[in-house]
Structure formats: C-alpha cells, structure tokens
C-alpha cells in the first residue's frame, strides 16, 4: 500500500531524466511510468486528467497532478521540505533562474540540430558544437568559482546541466573532457551514494537520450 | 542614495516589454539602454572579461557593478530588490501554479514565433491555417485557465501577469477579433491596464508601442 508518486514520461531520457535523478537524490519513492507507445498517452491516459496543462512529463501525487517540468521540481522540493534545492536565498534564487534561462538557450541551440534535418546534420554538426561549446565553457568557468553552478549548495539546475554533460560525453566527448571542472562536477554527482546506486540499476535508461525516430543523435 | 538601475535590451517590445512593465510597477528608478544595431551590443558588452563567466545576453540589468542576465532571473532579482518576493509566488502552491502557467505562455510564444519566422511564401500561403490549427487552441486554453481568476496564479499578482499582459497586447495587435472573443483574456488585459503605474506608463512617452519584433527579419511585428 504505497503512496508512491508517479512520474510519467516517454521511455527516453529527454526532459524527465533530471527529474528521475532529482527523485533519486531526494530519496522519494516513485513509480517511473514510461509511455513507449504514443497511443497509450494520446487519447487514453491524457484524457484522465482534468487540467489545462496536461502534458508529459507529469508528477501524480495521489489525487493531485503537476505538469511542466519546472513546476515538478518546485513541487518535489517543497514536498520533501528541501526548498534550498530551489535556491536558499535571493542571491542563489537569482542564480538558479539565470542558469535555468541559460539551459533554455542551450536547449534551443542543441535541439534545433538534434531534431533538425537528417540530411544536413553532419554538415551542421561542427557549428553546433562551437555554439554549445560556449555554454559548456561558461559552466566550466562558473564551477571554477563556486562548488555548484549556483553557489555553494546544490540546486535542481545542477541536475539539468549534468544531463547535457553526460549526453555530450557520448556525442562529442572532447567538448567536455577539455573542461576539467565540468568533468569533476559530473563525477561528483555520479558519486553521490544514491546516484551511484541508480546508475547501476538495470532500470536506469542509458539510451536513448532523445526521440530515436526523429533525432539525428539519440 | 541609490543609483538608477540600467535595463538593457533592443529598442523593440519583444522579451523586454514585460520587464519594462515590471520595473514601472515596482517603482524602481531605472534607465534604459535600447540597442538598435547588433554591433553596439556584441562590440560593447559581449566581451571578455564579462563574457568569461556568464553568458552575456539581452535583456540585462546592471545594478552598480553587478550584471544580471536571462529574463527569468531578472524577475527574481528585481522582486527581491524591491522587497516584493510575493511577486514570485508566496506559497509552494502558488510557485507550482506559476511554473505551470509559464509553460502555457512559453508554448504560445513558441508557436507564434514559428509563425512569424515563416518564409514570406509560407507566411502568405499558410498564415491563417497555422493560426487556426496551432495557435488558437493555446489561446483558448489560456482563456479557460483564466476563468474565475483575477490574476494568473489566482488572487495575487505575480511576475507571470506581466508576461501574460504582453502576450495579450500582441494578440490584440495581431488579431483583434480573436482577442475580443476571449472574455477572460480581455478581462485580465483590462485589469492589468488599469493598475495605476501601468496606466501611467502606457500613456507616457517611455512606452514603446512598436515594433513588437524587429522589422524585416520577422513576417509580423
């Protein structure tokens, strides 16, 4: 008789992976519901929610469901009484919003290539790596000055960036391995006992990162 | 005696406009730097050492020596500066509700941007169809979401209302008939326009009526 929360998303890493990490980090028991077939979601499960916001990912907690990945981090941090994961004071909250904005800009650049034309993907890859490399450079320099991306304590945006560092370690390792603080950051999170255990769990999704039917890299 | 804040953005409405409303509403003394040519920006501020540690970008706030970038962060920074953290959501429920509302606004902006960045041929041929199939349902969703609410998160005004108002203004300029047909959107728009500081700003010379987006590059603005 579990009151586990339910995280619903596609059976890929995508936007939900950092949420899975967050759930593991805060050690909140959860069901990782994965929609492998769009028809399980569209026209079926998505009709069961009485909300203006119905979408994936969602977090269902008893009768209450939260949509929008950012809202899900807010909900979970408050649920486990760890609002510091959203930024412990005005200064850190501003930095959290800054990094969150930068992640949005990174996604816009990266996903334009990932979900862009397959024919021109190889030709455009170098330019994409230059642009995304700028983001990683700035993250690396930020980590030279502070332990975590927003200051001396971890916040949810650290998990957002970890996911892209991990993805690039597969896609274009030199972009990351040339930045020692990023490598150290990646290892630091991987070494948290609860995360280390999660990474070894057979349920952990290594691939695909992205929608394998449409993406030029997954 | 505090120095004025400096708000930097392009000389258009765009992403900057909600932040202008916000600054006016908060009553924080500020100056604007309105960039017209990319060289002014990229040659001027987007240089080392500033761009070593942060992704310099527009909009920004310069507060003495301190720079803040990313529009999301500006709402947080300015709320705290003006002692109005309530604008960020006073309770966990409000914060979650705001994050959800922001999602709909972002979806709407994304499809609208797709429309106005069509090629000229695509725009001429598909504008109406695209609006009907991709944009209208999100507007209706937003309208339904606002039913029974004074403000986006319920009873209290928050930073999302400022972003929402600019979306309403954009819709009103783009398709006034659709705007008029959405009762809750119209109501929110009217309520917001009547906030004293906003009313004064809209009537002032500082208010940028247009363009919404840079002319030439976009099919509408």
Automatic annotation (TrEMBL), chain A:
For this protein, what reaction is catalysed?
Answer: RX + glutathione = an S-substituted glutathione + a halide anion + H(+)
Span of domain GST C-terminal: 89-209
**Molecular function GO labels:** glutathione transferase activity
Q: Does the keyword Isomerase apply?
A: no
Classification via InterPro entries: Glutathione-S-Trfase_C-like, Glutathione_S-Trfase, Glutathione_S-Trfase_N, GST_C, GST_superfamily
Answer yes or no on keyword Transferase. Answer: yes
Q: Please name the top-level EC class of this enzyme.
A: transferase
Supply the EC number(s): 2.5.1.18
Q: Which UniProt keywords apply?
A: Transferase
Q: What does the UniProt record say this protein does?
A: Conjugation of reduced glutathione to a wide number of exogenous and endogenous hydrophobic electrophiles.
Q: Which family does it belong to?
A: Belongs to the GST superfamily. Mu family.
What is the designated name of this protein? glutathione transferase
Automatic annotation (TrEMBL), chain B:
Q: InterPro entries, from UniProt?
A: Glutathione-S-Trfase_C-like, Glutathione_S-Trfase, Glutathione_S-Trfase_N, GST_C, GST_superfamily
Its protein name is glutathione transferase
State what this protein does: Conjugation of reduced glutathione to a wide number of exogenous and endogenous hydrophobic electrophiles.
Question: What Enzyme Commission number(s) appear in the record?
Answer: 2.5.1.18
Tell whether Protease is among the UniProt keywords.
no
Query: By its UniProt entry, which Pfam families does this protein fall under?
Result: GST_C_3 (PF14497), GST_N (PF02798)
Indicate the transmembrane segments per the record: none
This enzyme catalyses:
RX + glutathione = an S-substituted glutathione + a halide anion + H(+)
What's an example Gene Ontology biological process for this entry?
Answer: glutathione metabolic process
Entry keywords, A to Z: Transferase
Q: Where is the GST C-terminal domain?
A: 91-212
Q: Which family does it belong to?
A: Belongs to the GST superfamily. Pi family.
The GO molecular function terms of this record are:
glutathione transferase activity
List the coiled-coil residues. none
The UniProt record lists the GST N-terminal domain at: 3-86
Which enzyme class, named as a word? transferase
SUBUNIT field = Homodimer.
């Amino acid at each position: 008789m579990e009151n586990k929360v339910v995280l619903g998303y596609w059976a890929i890493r995508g936007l939900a992976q950092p949420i899975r990490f967050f759930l593991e980090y805060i050690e909140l028991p959860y069901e990782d519901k994965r929609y492998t077939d769009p028809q399980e979601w569209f026209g079926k499960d998505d009709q069961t929610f009485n909300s203006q916001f119905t979408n994936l990912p969602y977090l269902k907690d008893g009768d209450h469901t939260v949509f929008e990945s950012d809202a899900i981090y807010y909900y979970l941090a408050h649920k486990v009484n760890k609002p510091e994961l959203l930024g412990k004071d005005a200064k850190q909250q501003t930095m959290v919003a800054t990094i969150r904005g930068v992640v949005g800009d990174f996604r816009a650049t990266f996903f334009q290539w990932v979900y862009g034309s397959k024919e021109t993907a190889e030709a455009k890859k170098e330019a994409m790596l230059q642009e995304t490399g700028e983001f990683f450079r700035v993250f690396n320099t930020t980590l030279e000055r502070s332990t975590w991306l927003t200051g001396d304590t971890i916040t949810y945006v650290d998990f957002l960036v970890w996911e892209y560092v991990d993805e690039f370690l597969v896609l274009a390792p030199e972009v990351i391995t040339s930045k020692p603080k990023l490598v150290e950051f990646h290892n630091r999170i991987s070494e948290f006992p609860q995360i280390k255990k999660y990474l070894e769990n057979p349920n952990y999704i290594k691939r695909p990162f992205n929608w394998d039917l449409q993406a030029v890299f997954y | 005696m505090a120095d004025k804040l400096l708000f930097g953005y392009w000389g258009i409405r765009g992403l900057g406009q909600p932040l202008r409303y916000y600054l006016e509403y908060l009553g924080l003394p500020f100056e604007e730097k309105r960039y017209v040519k990319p060289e002014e920006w990229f040659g001027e501020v987007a240089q080392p050492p500033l761009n070593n540690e942060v992704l310099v970008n527009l909009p920004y706030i310069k507060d003495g020596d301190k720079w803040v970038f990313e529009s999301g962060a500006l709402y947080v920074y300015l709320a705290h500066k003006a002692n109005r953290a309530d604008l960020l959501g006073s309770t966990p429920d409000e914060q979650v509700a705001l994050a959800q509302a922001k999602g709909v606004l972002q979806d709407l902006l994304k499809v609208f941007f797709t429309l106005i960045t069509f090629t000229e041929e695509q725009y001429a041929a598909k504008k109406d169809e695209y609006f009907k199939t991709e944009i209208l349902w999100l507007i209706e969703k937003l309208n339904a979401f606002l039913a029974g609410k004074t403000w986006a998160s319920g009873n209290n005004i928050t930073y999302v209302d400022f972003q929402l108002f600019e979306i309403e203004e954009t819709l009103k300029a783009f398709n006034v008939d659709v705007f008029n047909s959405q009762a809750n959107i119209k109501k929110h728009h009217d309520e917001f326009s009547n906030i004293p500081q906003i009313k004064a700003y809209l009537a002032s010379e500082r208010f940028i009526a247009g363009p919404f987006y840079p002319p030439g590059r976009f099919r509408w603005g």
